[in-house]
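W.,

You were right to be curious about this one. When I first looked at the sequence I had no strong expectations either way, so I just let the prediction run and decided to look at it fresh. Below is the sequence, 278 residues in total, followed by the output.
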Amino acid sequence: MEINGASIFYREAGAPGAPVVLLLPGWPSSSAMFRDLIRELSVNYHVFAPDYPGFGNSDVPDRSHTPYTFDALGEVISKFIDKVGIGQYVLYATDFGGLVGYRVMMKTPHRMKALIAQNNPLFLGASPWFGPLVPYWKDGTADSREKVRQHYLTLDVIRDLYVSGVRDTSLTDPNQWQIDFFSLQRPGAADTSLDLLYDIRTNGPALKSAQDYLRAQKPPTLVVSGKNDILFPADSQQRYREVVPNAEIHLTDSGHCALADKSDEIAGRIHDFLGRVL
């Protein structure tokens, strides 16, 4: 689908007319992270999973005329929702997907019927994982940017997102982190990620607005996160109840990319949850 002159790839499955589940991926992945979940959910739901510009199989528009910020990604996903004809939807958001999805949620109030958060931040945290980003956030210099590139855009760091905190790493498919790493080698894709990693520093007001919105609207909320996540650990996921007191929280024995080894468990939780709240 063309949006803002760029080709945006997306996966779609399930029956038109069924309740819509919108799956928004995290960094540095794409809709590929949802392939098993899409198969599970499409039995009962109409599922959409787009790739952001610069990610997965979407185009990588030139940075000189396309900003890579969370505000900009939110605009693209909002246009995608309208263009494919989604009215109301359940939002499944993980990692970057929350920072994008919250913007979509607030841009079109009352269209989000339920929220499913998987290793998704709602409050600013201070994980040591972000430590090497702090100098870059402070000065934004070319030198700091290069140090971030050399640290984060490596196969080891991306692999750790999938295996850190996982009890049985044999259950995770190595193709997942290899595909993520390979996608960063496309022309322009690495700088796309560096721009967005830099833009994380601006998300305080957006998260506060999302908290206020969720506190006021109290949508049905399910948290299905890996409790051993080095980025957003169990205590950060429990904080959803500060905003939505009736949030259902199920923390599985996994890490940041919990779908990689706990997809069946998470799909079961989602079917039970949506079967009750929709």
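Here's what jumped out at me. The chain has one domain: 2-277. And, maybe more interesting for your project: Residues 225 and 258 are 7 Å apart (CA to CA).

Coffee later to discuss?

I.
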